Amino acid sequence: MKQGTLLIHNGYEIDPASKALGVPLIQTSTFDQSAFFDPEKAGAKPPEFDYARSGNPTRKALEEIIAKLENGAAGYAFGSGIAAVSSTLGIFSTGDHIIAAEDIYGGSYRILNTFYKRWGLEMTAVDGSKPEEIRRAIKPNTKAVFLETPSNPLLKICDLKACIAIAKEAGLLVIVDNTFMTPCLQRPIELGADIVLHSATKFLGGHSDVISGLAVTSTEELGKRIYAVQNGFGAVPGPWDIWLVIRGIKTLKVRMEAQEETAQFLSRRLREHPRVDTVYYPGLEDHPGKAIHDSQASGAGAVFSFKTKSAEAALRFLGRVKLAASAVSLGGVETIASYPVQMSHASIPPAERQRLGITDTLIRISAGLEDKEDLLEDFKQALD
Ligand SMILES: *Cc1c(COP(=O)(O)O)cnc(C)c1O
Prior knowledge:
This protein has a seven-stranded mixed sheet with strand order 1-7-6-5-4-2-3, sandwiched between helices. Helix content is about 40%, strand content about 15%. The radius of gyration is 22 Å and the shape is globular. The chain has two domains: about 250 residues, 3-Layer(aba) Sandwich (Aspartate Aminotransferase, domain 2), CATH 3.40.640.10; about 130 residues, Aspartate Aminotransferase, domain 1, CATH 3.90.1150. α4 packs parallel to α5 and α12 packs parallel to α16. It is of the alpha/beta class. The structure holds pyridoxal-5'-phosphate.
């Protein structure tokens, strides 16, 4: 089945007990285990579910759905994208070394550079768009490479196949944050990655109404290592949030298609605007990473960014734009304009931000489901 069909016929489309068209929301902390203790039923198998931190039928549905969509062996749900990231990093040990792309999600970088650093997990940051930098950073204690493509907020492209080849040669695990692309557009496990991570808060949930995260592993064995952290660390989501993500995922394909069409339209039209300097979007023919992106993903996604010619123009845009919320986050049905220097990347020292190209003229757009012509008119008045 193709992804569009798989989103609907995901194995959980009809509940076997009630025949409901959907996954029951099982709101419980614990499960009755009496059958297991009944001497007349000696030899009964231990119950599948015993305590809801360890497992819950609603959560199991989401975990199996995301594993199927990413073409992986096992999936795990977490209370946030960052909980998925930090729990996954919990499979490593003090003294291990991780190579991370320098422009992975700010929160992922921070957990590596603060919390895990204190616990003795070493990290080297490299330019993810230059696979050779990964090769040069490999040390005897290197265990994994952490990648994200397209990057945030400048939409740089990492050559997944080239990076995975280098990592595999050295026996390293490859972790890919696939939040921006979703399994509809990019499936890193099919390219050889070992673990795929998601902030389900973004496109998977899709409606800006839930915080959630997911991890998918390429093998059952790796899955068991993540399960040990999921259960032991306990950063699990509640069933209601899980249910919202399951519901959101059903419309993922049509949302991605419509939102990408708007991103394609706006990115092209905005770069003709006199107050706009540069537009960053892998859907544009002259994007430096376009050929690589097209070789590993089936669409450019719904996020792009642009630089205005002055900081004043950027601030005026954010204050005056009406149809986009000036906010953090992305991937919802609503268009969102964010200002990385004061939002997602505010904690990076100014000199480092400048080096990375994250200037006070940079605005990131997550295209929503509004009519694209209305968005363009609104963006124009906000720039003018
Ligand atoms: C938002 C985001 C995260 C973190 O997810 P939360 O749900 O906010 O914890 C991780 N990676 C990427 C690429 C993101 O955009």
